[in-house]
């Protein structure tokens, strides 16, 4: 199903990079052409330029995203400064709990995962660095919606509250009640709302103007994690990181 | 100092992304124009397209790299599969030592850092995720040059062995002796060759065909790290990761 391809040459080239989804490893030229709507000869010519730049790499069967994108991606200042400042605190939390530790930001209507610290004893869960989950279904997302500007919640509600599990909060009224509790507590909670069997607790990271710029969370097994007991540790890490971000 | 700008529109657009160096946070339109050799009106038009794609973000004073690049960079399969498989082993090493733990690959003539686990008690050192150091000056690089295909060493020697510290090995003959010792030991050692006061030990990660695809290293203070004592831990982690990569 080809959709109309972008008009400009630059946008066409970039659309070839965007054709790779979160779980794609490699795509053939035919797939790239179909996903972007570009005729095969055009796709072929632009792909060759992307290969020489390093944004794509040729494989036996087609093409995969190339190391140049990874290197550039690590230079993105918004993630770099947060990640560098956060890592020691995330490591402390990991060492104290051996659960999944996340650093997240709000992006569009999603929780975007900037960093994930995990180990052999952590429960395997779906989150991945650079990946997303709908904000209303995550502990971090509730922090952003409860403590961020009202436009965040408007955008999320307007986009529709998609259901991920039987426990996802999909009614705007119930979500607002949950967010009021988040404000009162000072941390967000997710009880199997993004993934069955997985719970999480998240606390806000503020900048020097007290704007919420990120969240720190712990996620793991619903049978093992005592969220109320873990909340102070998460809040302490988020407060320490806030102080560090404010002083930079 | 403008150099001749790339010919094609796609290459011109990509050159604007490549204008951001490892430590740049934001660049003005004038800087972007100067670094790429593109006339200001052309740069302005292409920058607008990159902003709408998300590869650049507008700031008060200019432009910075955008989150789309971070998200795409995390989809690069070569780093993603290695990073995902390695993280538990890197965390184990970190917890056992509290030093800087690296996952690296060979790229062009450099050691490219795919992951770095570090904490409050680790010595602050120059390495950063997505960053590079010349291969001949790092413990991981010596692993790649000693155990990888001969073309690696040829490329590095042809490029010239740059000096980073008083201890960097800059004579090809001495480097070959060091690599022979690396083969005999099975791990690489860096004694203040990339950064004064910093030493490191690195072990190879193999794929199912016994090709070296990555290295795991520990780096820290020259006064504190006993490299011979740490080598078995690094080798054990690299072997476990090799087994996991071979089974995928």
From TrEMBL, chains A, B:
InterPro entries: GAF-like_dom_sf, HTH_MetabolicPath_Reg, Tscrpt_reg_IclR_C, Tscrpt_reg_IclR_N, WH-like_DNA-bd_sf, WH_DNA-bd_sf
One Pfam family matching this protein: IclR_C
Molecular function via GO: DNA binding; DNA-binding transcription factor activity
Domain IclR-ED: 68-247
A biological process term (GO) from this entry: negative regulation of DNA-templated transcription
Record keywords, A-Z: DNA-binding, Transcription, Transcription regulation
Residue intervals of the HTH iclR-type domain: 7-67
Protein name: IclR family transcriptional regulator
The organism of origin for this protein: Actinophytocola oryzae
């Amino acid at each position: 199903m080809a959709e109309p391809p972008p008009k400009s040459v630059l946008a066409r080239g970039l659309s070839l990079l965007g054709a790779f989804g979160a779980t794609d490893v490699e795509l053939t030229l035919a797939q790239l052409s179909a996903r972007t709507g570009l005729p095969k000869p055009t796709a072929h010519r632009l792909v060759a330029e992307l290969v020489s730049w390093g944004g794509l790499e040729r494989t036996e069967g087609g093409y995969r995203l190339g190391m140049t994108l990874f290197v550039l991606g690590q230079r993105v200042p918004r993630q770099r400064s947060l990640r560098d400042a956060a890592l020691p605190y995330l490591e402390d939390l990991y060492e104290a709990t051996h659960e999944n530790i996340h650093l997240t930001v709000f992006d569009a209507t999603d929780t975007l995962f900037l960093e994930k610290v995990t180990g052999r004893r952590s429960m395997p869960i779906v989150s991945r660095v650079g990946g997303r989950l709908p904000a209303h279904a995550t502990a971090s997302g509730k922090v952003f919606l409860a403590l961020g500007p009202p436009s965040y919640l408007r955008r999320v509600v307007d986009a529709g509250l998609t259901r991920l599990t039987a426990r996802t909060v999909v009614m705007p009224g119930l979500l607002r009640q949950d967010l009021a509790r988040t404000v009162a507590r000072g941390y967000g909670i997710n009880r199997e709302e993004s993934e069955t069997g997985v719970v999480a607790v998240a606390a806000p990271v503020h900048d020097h103007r007290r704007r919420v710029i990120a969240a720190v969370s712990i996620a793991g097994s619903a049978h093992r994690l005592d969220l109320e007991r873990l909340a102070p540790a998460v809040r302490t890490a988020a407060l320490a990181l806030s102080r560090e971000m404010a002083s930079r």
